[in-house]
Amino acid sequence: MFNRGLLKRSTLIDYKQIENDQEHYGYKIMKKIAENIFINEYSAKIMPGVHFPVNTSFIELEKNELAVISPGPFEQKMIQEIISKYSTVYCVAPNALHYKHLKNFNNIFPEINIY
Q1: pLDDT digits 0-9 by tens, 84-110
Q2: Beta strand 65-69 with 88-92: parallel, antiparallel or unpaired?
Q3: Domain range enclosing 18
Q4: How many domains is the chain built from?
Q5: Which of 3, 1, 24 is nearest to 13 (CA)?
Q6: What span, in angstroms and rounded, lies between the C-alpha atoms of 100 and 105?
Q7: Which among 71, 8, 76, 7 is positioned nearest to 40, based on CA atoms?
Q8: CA 90, 115, 82 angle in degrees (round to 5)?
Q9: Which of helix, strand or coil describes residue 87?
Q10: How far apart are CA 52 and CA 72, in angstroms?
Q11: pTM, whole model, 2 decimals?
């Protein structure tokens, strides 16, 4: 459980301007699931004919920080636009299933702290 005191007012997406199912740079726009917590859903092919539903979580923290958990496939322009709003970004890949897109994410943002 995380400390609610760390969360701040959301700056990730202005939901007054967009709908949850709209596309942005060809990808589904993130869904807000709680205050300052957003997910980007996608499907991972784990073997022929088997697709596993997965999501990347974005948690906005205090001090203009962002935690990206289990980075997925992103269009570079889209993710750069999101990440550029934050002074510090942490990337967490909790286990081997979450490493698939980590290298690409790290190539785009070599300065990001990866855990």
Answers
A1: 888 888 888 776 666 666 777 777 777
A2: parallel
A3: 4-114
A4: 1
A5: 24
A6: 10
A7: 71
A8: 25
A9: coil
A10: 13
A11: 0.66
